[in-house]
Amino acid sequence: MFVKKITKNELEIETPAKINLFLDVLNKRADGFHNINSLFQAISLFDTLHFEVQSEPKLTLVIPENNSLPTDNSNLIVKAYNFMREKFELESGLSVTLTKNIPIAAGLAGGSSDAAATILACNILFDLELTAEAMAGCGLHVGSDLPFFFSSGQALITGQGEIIEETSYPLDYELVIVKPNISISTAESYSGLKRDLTKRKNPFKLGTCQTVDSYVMSLLKGCNDFEEVHLLSYPEIGKIKDELLMAGADLARMSGSGPCVFGIFKELPDNKEDLNRSNANWQLFFVKPIQLAKYC
After folding, report:
1. Active-site residue, from 18, 79, 179, 241
2. How large is the C-alpha radius of gyration of the chain?
């Protein structure tokens, strides 16, 4: 996340999307969540949140030009503020304007990223003096993906999402993200997994990779467990993968629970428009892997 401090009572945060370079769903936990094994990578696709302190201890959320997102307690931004208000007995509230650029329900964790930014804003504006680790702990109470956004932007994620091992794999490549005009819920993704999630699966291990070529070769040995499910139900995802590979991607894979698919390129194709010649409804994003600023 990247903070632009405006005044004592006002700030702006750019908060990124992430992709899952691989994703294992291991087993179901006693608390009903699932253990995962995944490599998360922050990318240069950002939502922007403008925060301003308000006297009443509540959060007021405005999302211009987007009528599909709720602004009530079902929104993760509101949930994050309410958790912080109760935990730290906040006496003031926040007015938030969200400029939404990250696709919704796409496997890119845009909602989680926005909620993580809200925790960071509370820490700064209300002088809570929390470490990155403490903010990550707060985030886990709101959603499993939140802790990652308090890392440096690339990490092996295990457990429910709370175990973060920062990594240093290559970043010198290009990414094309393709969002088809379909929606897939996380609940649908888990219900589609045929295997017994109470039994432990051996997690994929990436190993040491010094170059992009060795990195991609190693990543190709992994997978996204949700992808094999959705390729059957949503053949458009397979079509996107084929288009990316034909355009020169070294790897094409679905992110998270979908439906976004990313392609890794050493160099982008000369004619980017060729990437969505098959379907004008696809959204394309040309981005890069990034490192994040850490706030201790």
Report:
1. 18
2. 19
Q: Please check whether residue 50 lies inside any domain of the structure.
A: yes
Task: Give yes or no: residues 112 and 183 share one domain.
Answer: no
Contacts with 226 (C-beta within 8 Å, 6 or more apart), sequence order: 23, 25, 189, 192, 193, 254, 256, 257, 258
pLDDT digits (tens, 9 = 90+) for 247-266: 999 999 999 988 999 999 99
> Would residue 4 show up in a list of annotated catalytic residues for this protein?
no
Sequence-ordered list of residues with C-beta below 8 angstroms from that of 157, at least 6 positions apart, any chain: 36, 37, 38, 39, 40, 148, 163, 164, 165
pTM of the model: 0.93
The reply to whether 145 belongs to the active site is yes
Tell me which of 24, 47, 145, 250 is the catalytic residue. Answer: 145
Between β-strands 93-99 and 59-62, what pairing exists: parallel, antiparallel or unpaired?
parallel
- Average pLDDT of the chain to the nearest whole number: 90
Q: What is the pLDDT of residues 170-186, one digit of tens each?
A: 999 999 999 998 877 66
Same-domain pairing of 24 and 124: yes
